[in-house]
Amino acid sequence: MKVTKTLGQFIIEKQADFPYAKGELSRLLRDIGIAAKLVNREVNKAGLVDIIGEAGTENIQGENQKKLDVYANEQFISALTYGGECCIIVSEENDEYLHIEGEVSKDAKYIVAIDPLDGSSNIDVNVNVGTIFSIYRRKSTSGKPTMDDILQKGVEQVAAGYITYGSSTMLVYTTGKGVNGFTLDPSIGEFCLSHPNMRIPQDGHIYSINEGHYTHFPDGVKKYLKYCQVEDKVTNRPYTSRYIGSMVADLHRNLILGGIFIYPVTASAPNGKLRLVYECNPMAFLIEQAGGKASNGYERILELDVNHLHQRSAIFIGSENMVNKAEEMMSFFS
Ligand code: AHM
Ligand code: MG
């Protein structure tokens, strides 16, 4: 019989990679795994109960919040609050950051940024959605955490990952020592190690972008798309276009098969659409750890200054050679 390793067992085993760790990060990752299972349960029965549809409130970006967005946000906040290892939560669904106070979190060292339900416009049509998380260690050693603790550059992340809720549910994460993927076994209710040491191919054949915005793309992006579509036997072009509209699902596929995901600046999103703190930075950290690359078209995502919680950025992320080529095309017009 094949013996599988659970997420919990794997986390404990990997704690040895951090000689000074006291298990706090491990407990934090465990808490995220617990919330993910609860969200998974609700996502799976979304068509059965009256939980799909809009909640009637708006988030900071003025987008209607779906009921499952609200539920997912509550589950992650609750798991992180009661877990006791997290002092600040930044969420796509909350205008301000949440400072967790109380006995259980009084010495908490970690700051967690989350997009609790990414790709939520896909919920009502039964298409993959996901959760993205990013973990930082606070820098200040006493008192209330400061904005400097919260607005750290992506390079300072100590862990990051995503959960994709789909035909099977997976949790994929990194602590800066490679990337590992776990598939939820519903029969035992555990995430089991299914994709150890994930590596993104250096080259790929898939490009993922919302071409509906083509007219408003920067010239460098238009040039790169033309490059993707032109026939060339040596480089195996034309490439294949695949776009789900759920960043987690699009990136998960490209991580496994090789590819590039682009969300550039557009007329309606002049700074890009995706959020730096809880979408771009965690995905950039994870994809770099898998051997890929992430850029805003000119600079490494992980080194961008972070000025506010809900800051947006353009993103070009995926197989290294593809991102390099896209950057080259961007540089012709800069
Ligand atoms: P969300 O966090 O509000 O769900 O938005 C993020 C999503 C990404 O998952 C996806 O890549 C993108 O928005 C899709 O946007 P568009 O519909 O403009 O292509
Ligand atoms: Mg979202």
Automatic annotation (TrEMBL):
Binding site for Mg(2+) 2: 115, 118, 279
Cofactor: binding details: Binds 2 magnesium ions per subunit.
A cellular-component GO term for this protein: cytosol
Fructose-1-6-bisphosphatase class 1 C-terminal domain ranges (all copies): 200-330
Keyword Secreted: no
Keywords, alphabetical: Carbohydrate metabolism, Cytoplasm, Hydrolase, Magnesium, Metal-binding
E.C. numbers: 3.1.3.11
Pathway stated in the Swiss-Prot or TrEMBL entry: Carbohydrate biosynthesis; Calvin cycle
Source superkingdom: Bacteria
Catalytic activity: beta-D-fructose 1,6-bisphosphate + H2O = beta-D-fructose 6-phosphate + phosphate
CDD domains (alphabetical): FBPase
Binding site for substrate: 118-121, 210, 243, 273
Main location per the UniProt record: cytoplasm
Complex formation: Homotetramer.
PANTHER family: FRUCTOSE-1,6-BISPHOSPHATASE-RELATED, SEDOHEPTULOSE-1,7-BISPHOSPHATASE, CHLOROPLASTIC
Listed name of the protein: Fructose-1,6-bisphosphatase class 1
Gene that produces this protein: fbp
